[in-house]
Write a structure and sequence with these properties.
The complex is a heterodimer. Chain A is 72% helix and 2% strand. Chain A has 8 helices and 2 strands; from the N terminus they run ααααββαααα. Chain A has a two-stranded antiparallel ribbon. In chain A, α5 runs antiparallel to α6 and α5 packs across α8. Chain B is of the alpha+beta class. Classes of the chains: A mainly alpha, B alpha+beta. The interface between A and B is large, with 63 and 74 residues.
Chain lengths: 218, 547
């Protein structure tokens, strides 16, 4: 009895999602195709003078740029439906592989960031809501509004300058210490390199959650 | 009452949550401090076992020579038939000898018989033929389209048959790393197998590349066992060097003025040039196939182009804009063996420039400080890519130097997309620079002008075309050099300042690196366009000199 409307609801939402994704794909494709940036020139860059017209045609052929936009889009969509995500031009590698390797690192970072910003944001939001109007509430709101309007990369740079360059407690780069093989990376090294990016994402996330929580409590 | 209790309980819940997180945070920080003490020490300093390099140069599409990997610097994993030594002279590597037929169409190369790929398989002439044939049909960043076919005539001899003679083809023998026919496929770029000095151990994309000595390498064993290339931005490279974590760091000139304990600044000469390209023909309404206008009435006047060349103080540009890390450039190949030294001029001479302009019919008839010739005002626009601060400074300084001689240059920064439409009718600050003379050919050959970057100014001189053709058609680089030089300036004509002055070349950038005092990197080559990876050209010869 209860199941039917739920199923219908889910179906309708899924259909909408599919249409939305299709629309996004079409728009992205058309916009990129019409953009004045020539992918060929971007790829060749400063080697332009050593790559003759014949070679430029070969590159365009490898990338399918010699085909009209509609044909290229149809090819891509047809392959996608059959489960072939295609090959990344930039990385010369199957798209699944490109996404898979990066997704793993992102997932860990996002998990930590969500957890931290959830807990801290909820805590600060509750404090601010309970003590609304006091100096404590004002301080929390100042913090939240400041961070909510600061770009992530800027906050990241500030933290990098403070903790990596000046205090030297966090690493400057990468998911593991330089020169250490993947098999030899210890759990501590892994966490050490995860720390700063995760904290940065958390700090940004806190602001929104704290403000929303405070609002609900008022 | 009820309300108050609720508030209190929510408050305490909040405090508890907050407290927990703060404690967790504090603990995390002390742990991280411990980790940095214990974990960072192995990578802190270099040794003969391992050095860390922060010189950029990550090849995002992998390490496949048939797609262009190794076109400058060391291909690391593969080796090439020939290579250029410290003086850029051509010497044998895999090849033991090579000859070019009378008609320039057949290059016969004999290779050494003791070369082995890192997987233990021997390298034969068949692999060489496969590599060249594959590269010729691959849509990558190496142009081997002049090759008709490559044929292995026996185990150590390969014939490279060309569609037409091309003296610059020798650059493919210098840059194209040989790949194994048996192990070359779609996943090769991420699992390179070759006969080079190093082999791939691990590549964390966007982060680092770890390579180790290839025990099967036929040449002298490299001095450093393991190389770690960290892919960080220039600021990161400097920070890593300063922290003692990197032994070779490429840094921009603005950071090179600083000093780092235990490191020496290498100021490497390059042919990474910057210059002003002039539209050569008058504006007649002609357009490129894309509809971009061609020509500029002011810069079509020889007197204007020559006066600009003589008025500019190139040494002042080097000192002022490049912090001294550069050298004056008078042609597209300043500093290379095929430069014509007689093409150099005595610049920073506004008086000479004024004489040239006066003789060309330019005079300031209305007294506004800018010259006129009939209805034409001596005014043009210099375009530069807005993201490039060095080119901006060069353009502004050059414009300032032209004011006293009565030429008004307006400087504008634009995106590359706007520049590509405007570059056939405006002066543009371009930068090129290569060990391959094909570049010079494409910058000045009249037929190369087709509405793109090739000969963007539509320069055309049939005598120069003939000389360039002779250079391109010569059987060897050594024989071609006389023609390359004559095209620049033969005492009578040429495309440089005393001749047609098709460009006003300004400076060559130096490439600056901090190198550990314990590391001997030999004598770096005059580097091509591209700051960073070119320093690896002789990396197999580097040695660690401390204990």
């Amino acid at each position: 009895m209860q199941l039917r409307p739920i199923l219908l609801f889910a179906l309708r939402k899924l259909l909408r999602l599919g249409l939305l994704l299709l629309a996004v794909a079409v728009f992205t494709f058309v916009l990129l195709s019409l953009s004045p940036i020539d992918p060929l020139q971007a790829y060749i860059g400063a080697d332009m003078m050593q790559i003759g017209p014949e070679q430029q045609e070969l590159i365009a052929e490898r990338w399918g740029l010699d085909q009209p936009m509609i044909v290229r889009f149809w090819d891509w969509l047809g392959q996608l439906v059959q489960g072939n995500w295609g090959t990344s031009l930039v990385f010369n590698q199957p798209v699944e592989a490109v996404i898979a390797t990066r997704f793993q690192a992102s997932l860990q970072m996002l998990a930590i960031a969500w957890l931290l910003s959830g807990l801290l944001g909820l805590g600060l939001g509750i404090v601010a809501g309970a003590l609304a109007g006091t100096w404590c509430d004002r301080a929390i709101r100042l913090y939240a509004y400041t961070l909510a309007s600061a770009p992530t990369f800027w906050v990241a740079l500030l933290l990098l300058i403070t903790f990596s360059v000046s205090l030297k407690v966090t690493p400057i780069c990468c998911a593991a210490p330089p020169g250490v093989l993947a098999a030899d990376v210890t759990l501590w090294q892994h966490l050490h390199h995860l720390l700063l990016p995760a904290i940065t994402l958390s700090i940004i996330g806190i602001a929104n959650i704290a403000l929303h929580t405070r609002q609900k409590l008022r | 009452m009820m309300n108050r209790r609720l508030r209190l309980s929510t408050l305490s819940l909040g405090a508890v949550l907050l407290g927990q997180v703060l404690v967790g945070c504090g603990a995390g920080q002390t742990e991280s401090a411990n980790v940095s003490d214990s974990g960072a020490s192995p990578a802190q300093t270099g040794s003969a076992e391992q050095i860390v390099l922060t010189i950029g140069g990550e090849s995002e599409d992998g390490y496949d020579p048939t797609l262009g990997w190794g076109r400058y610097g060391s291909p690391l994993f593969q080796s090439t038939l020939l290579r250029r030594d410290d003086n850029l002279d051509i010497v044998n590597d895999l090849a033991t000898d090579y000859t070019v037929s009378e008609d320039g169409l057949t290059w016969t190369v004999t290779i050494r018989d003791d070369a082995v790929f890192s997987d233990g398989e021997p390298l034969t002439a068949a692999d060489v033929a496969y590599t060249f044939n594959k590269a010729a049909e691959s849509g990558g960043l190496t142009d081997v389209t002049v090759l008709d076919e490559a044929v292995a005539t026996d185990d150590t001899t390969v014939e490279l048959r060309l569609k037409q003679p091309q003296s610059t083809f020798v650059n493919r023998l210098i840059t194209l790393g040989i790949v194994p026919e048996h192990a070359h496929g779609p996943d090769y770029a991420r699992n390179p197998v070759g006969s080079g000095p190093y082999q791939l151990v691990q590549w964390d994309e966007g982060q680092q590349l770890i390579v180790e000595v290839n025990p099967n390498y036929y040449g002298e064993a490299p001095g450093i066992q393991r190389l770690v290339f960290l892919f960080v931005e220039e600021d990161g490279a400097f920070a890593a060097a300063k922290a003692g974590q990197s032994q070779v760091a490429s840094v921009p000139p603005s950071l090179a003025v600083q000093s780092i304990d235990g490191m020496t600044l290498y100021d490497v000469t390059s042919v990474d040039n910057r210059g002003l390209m002039f539209p050569y023909e008058p504006a007649t309404g002609r357009t490129t196939p894309n509809g971009a206008p061609i020509g500029n009435d002011v810069t079509a006047d020889l007197a204007i182009r020559q006066a600009v060349n003589f008025a500019i103080d190139r040494q002042a540009l080097v000192d002022g804009v490049l912090e001294g890390y550069g050298s004056p450039a008078y042609g597209p190949v300043s500093g290379l063996a095929w430069e014509e030294p007689k093409a150099n001029i005595e610049d920073a001479d506004p008086e000479r420039a004024k004489e040239i302009l006066a003789a060309g019919g330019w005079a300031d008839s209305n007294g506004d400080g800018v010259l006129e010739k009939g209805d034409l005002k001596a005014e043009f626009t210099i375009l530069y890519p807005a993201s490039d601060s060095t080119r901006q400074a060069l353009a502004l300084s050059a414009a300032e130097m032209l004011k006293p001689i009565g030429i008004q240059a307006n400087v504008e920064g634009k995106s590359w997309d706007e520049i590509t439409l405007a570059m056939h009718s405006n002066v543009v600050v371009f930068g090129w620079g290569s060990h391959d003379q094909t570049e010079m050919y494409n910058l000045y050959y009249s037929q190369a002008a087709q509405g793109d970057f090739f000969n963007a100014g539509y320069y055309a001189n049939s005598a120069i075309d003939t000389t360039l053709d002779l250079a391109m058609g010569a059987p060897s680089e050594a024989e071609a050099i006389a023609f390359w030089q004559a095209a620049q300036w033969d005492g009578d004509q040429g495309f440089t300042a005393q001749g047609d002055a098709a460009w006003a070349w300004l400076v060559n950038l130096d490439h600056t690196y901090f190198v550990s005092d314990c590391l001997d990197i030999g004598q770096p080559q005059v580097e091509p366009h591209g700051h960073g990876w070119p320093i690896t050209a002789n990396i197999a010869e580097w040695t660690w000199t401390c204990n």
